[in-house]
Specification:
About 50% of the residues lie in helices and about 15% in strands.
Length: about 500
């Protein structure tokens, strides 16, 4: 058996998969719309047939019920009731006329004051006498005689007190009724066998024409050049597709910005790497020309320092690239204790501070500070803040790391007693490769941009302000309370 064409709209398994929860193999908008239009039609058609059959039987009963009621009335006019007996003047010609039906068998019955049969057929089943029979009202019911369905019309006649009401019944089989109902059903349903296929064809053609703008939009996108990230014009795009096209254009704009940022990053990185590499080459050439061992040793130490600076620059570039790529789930978000992380990073930076004679300490309450984030990136952020503070603080100074978990959010501070940053430069130092003029300490200009990139990734805010008494610098990073609103059991890694 040939496999079904994946693009074919004639597949009714998709709506069944939607209803019963089974997985779908294909996903076609055309097929889904067609399925959801045809599936209710196929579902309602049997219901329509059942309703039509019921209504046709009711319609067929009306004229024949009226004839049965007239027969009951005719017999009632022949009944005479006295104090002790019931007499029916029912001549033979009238009986023959009553039974003169070529299709259905007719039965009649009249009972007496004791419930006995006065005249007629015993085959008609007895009916329960109501507590308050209404004389003169003809009632109807469905019953059977010898296993054959019949329609019964009956009426109770008034009798003296204490007597059983006289019952007059006329019944007939349902052949004429069924024949009439069949003709009604055929007249209603037969046209549907022609209308429904025609409706399916018209729906198919209508859908084909309706999705034609989607095909044209698809062709416009396919014909674009591979590097063309310009917005798609919304002229002629259906209203239902405009939000999709607008969202697609916004995504293309973000992609264009990311590509431009990557190009700038590559250009800046190449420019920044050129300087230390050129210095390494120059120092190496000088060392090769030296014959004095002391001078050669001094040149080798300079080469080692330059290599360390180049390695540090490369590591910072990698951290910055890693932070930018974290939006694409390179790193898993975890539910972590920021206090434990801050204590570990501070301890790791302690040898660097001690080597420079700087007092490095951590001030925080001994209470876990929970935060959802990437531990590696948050550690890099805090390490960069401490490294900057130690680098620009003179020997004998101090660097303090503070962590507070308040009602409005989490606040992380790194405060130093260094030379400080002029207010005009406090925002610009977050730009890549920007360095404050007149500062002698070596730096790549990437530490604070890395801090802001990681803070933004964690929905945090970072800024710089002057230290106590206007001396030194305090770097502040705040995280919103929403970041720590979930319990560890509810956070997915």
């Amino acid at each position: 058996m040939a496999e079904a064409d994946p693009s074919s709209p004639w597949r009714l398994r998709s709506w069944r998969a939607q209803v019963f929860g089974a997985p779908t193999e294909f996903n076609s908008l055309f097929g889904e719309i067609l399925d959801w239009m045809l599936a209710p039609l196929l579902f309602l058609w049997p219901i329509s047939i059942a309703v039509t059959h019921h209504v046709a039987n009711q319609i067929a009963d009306q004229p024949y019920d009226q004839a049965l009621a007239e027969n009951v009335g005719a017999i009632v006019r022949l009944v005479r009731i006295s104090e002790s007996r019931v007499h029916v003047d029912f001549p033979a010609p009238a009986r023959a006329l009553l039974r003169a039906d070529e299709q259905d068998a007719l039965f009649f019955q009249v009972t007496g004051l004791q419930g006995e049969l006065v005249v007629g057929d015993r085959e008609i089943p007895w009916v329960e006498i109501p507590e308050k029979p209404e004389p003169g009202q003809v009632l109807f019911r469905d019953d059977d005689v010898s296993g054959e369905d019949i329609r019964v019309a009956y009426q109770f006649l008034p009798v003296p007190a204490g007597k059983v009401p006289v019952l007059v019944q006329v019944a007939e089989t349902r052949k004429k009724r069924e024949a009439l109902a069949s003709r009604i059903i055929s007249g209603v349903l037969l046209p549907q066998f022609a209308i429904i296929p025609l409706a399916v064809v018209l729906v198919y053609l209508g859908l084909s024409r309706g999705i034609a703008p989607l095909n044209r939009l698809q062709e416009r996108i396919r014909l674009r050049r591979p590097g063309d990230l310009s917005p798609i014009g919304i002229h002629g795009v259906p209203d239902e597709m405009r939000p999709v096209v607008v969202a697609f254009n916004e995504m293309m704009a973000r992609l264009e910005q990311n590509l431009q940022a990557q190009q700038r990053f590559i250009a800046d990185a190449a420019h920044q790497m050129r300087t230390p590499l050129t210095g390494l080459k120059t120092q190496t050439e000088l060392a090769l020309g030296e014959t004095d061992p002391d001078q050669m040793s001094r040149s080798l130490r300079q080469i080692a320092e330059s290599a360390d600076r180049a390695a540090h620059l490369i590591n910072q570039l990698l951290v910055l690239a890693r932070a930018e790529a974290s939006h694409e789930k390179v790193h898993a978000v975890e539910y972590l204790d920021l206090l434990r992380l801050a204590r570990r990073v501070t301890q790791d930076c302690l040898p660097l501070a001690l080597a420079k004679g700087i007092d490095l300490g951590l001030e925080a309450d001994e209470v876990p500070v929970h935060l959802q984030g990437v531990p590696l990136l948050l550690g890099e952020m805090l390490a960069n803040l401490i490294d900057n503070a130690v680098k620009y603080t003179p020997r004998g100074g101090s660097v303090t790391v503070r962590l507070r978990d308040g009602a409005t959010g989490i606040r992380l501070e790194v405060e130093d007693t260094g030379c400080g940053i002029p207010e005009a430069d406090r925002e610009r130092v977050f730009e890549r490769f920007y360095r404050v003029l007149g500062v002698e300490a070596d730096g790549s200009g990437l530490g604070l941009p890395i801090v802001r990139e990681i803070a933004d990734l964690h929905r945090g805010v970072v800024w710089l302000e002057a230290g106590p008494g206007g001396k030194g610098t305090r770097a502040v990073v705040t995280f919103p309370r929403e970041s720590s609103s979930k319990s560890p059991e509810t956070v997915e890694p």
